[in-house]
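Quick log. Single chain, no ligands specified.
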Amino acid sequence: MDSLNKGIDKAEVTLKWDPSPPGAPDHDLDLIAATYPVTAPHGKPAYLVHFGSRSPDGTITLNRDSKTGQGLGADEAMTLELDRLSENYGRVVLGVAIQQNAGRITFGDVANPGVRITTGRSVLSSEDLSGVPASTAATVAEFVRDGSGAWAFRTLVRGFDADPTSFAALMGSSR
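-> predicted structure:
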């Protein structure tokens, strides 16, 4: 955060989890960012960033995509350049979905899932998803543009029982 009046210019999101036990199917968790227009902040997303993609204008990029949770540090990483996002967009919702290829898997089935959101050296949020153990997907945070154009952050942990495609359509809905 450069100043209180300016809001958040850029954020980094990381997702980590421990690999499945030997002999068990891999757990594949995915970061998803949904961008909403100012005119419909709780409607259908204008676009999604997930599975190794990036936003059409390059302002939101998934930099790392793991299918197993193996490796040190973050398994998935996403960069959001909010200061470059068109003024037509007023809300960005961040979520995590579990691929359901090997049967129903919930956050309670995955060892040590965690999402960390930072701006510069400041930690905005660090969530272990223990509050949604029976869910297969969850929103974790949102960025909202205020009337002055500045971006504000809010933690938004909310569980869903949905596959990744259905979750992407639901994740920005109002409660």
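The longest helix spans residues 164-170.
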